[in-house]
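Exercise 7. Given the encoded structure of a 123-residue chain, write a plausible sequence.
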């Protein structure tokens, strides 16, 4: 079992930046693919970004490409999401996820989920 806890959400004006962090604990000795999904009000879970154990395989949703950067620190068991040039449509609960094996953009394939952190972007 792996436990994930997000932090860093908040309220920001359009054009601003936020940095989200996710701390993993428990069975972190396996090679987990980690990432972020988001859930906007009235919408389903949307893939945001993911990164594999060693870092070179990174995937972004088209809607955040060029604005968001995902990174991880395996020594600290953390994954971060730097979000720049935020837009009101980025408003959502951001969820940290982890899975064994290769990466995926499908939320059903992720085994572990954090409780989420709220990001609100005002216009």
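Solution.
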């Amino acid at each position: 079992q792996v436990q994930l806890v997000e932090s860093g959400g908040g309220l920001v004006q359009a054009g601003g930046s936020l940095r989200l962090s996710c701390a993993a604990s428990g069975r972190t000795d396996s090679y987990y693919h980690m990432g972020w999904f988001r859930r906007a009000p009235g919408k389903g879970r949307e893939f945001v970004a993911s990164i594999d154990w060693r870092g070179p395989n990174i995937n972004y949703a088209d809607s955040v490409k060029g604005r968001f950067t995902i990174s991880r620190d395996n020594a600290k068991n953390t994954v971060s999401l730097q979000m720049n040039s935020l837009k009101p449509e980025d408003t959502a609960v951001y969820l940290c996820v982890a899975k064994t094996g290769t990466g995926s953009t499908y939320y059903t394939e992720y085994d572990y989920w954090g409780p989420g952190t709220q990001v609100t972007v005002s216009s």
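Remark. The radius of gyration is 13 Å. Students should compare their own answers with the one above.
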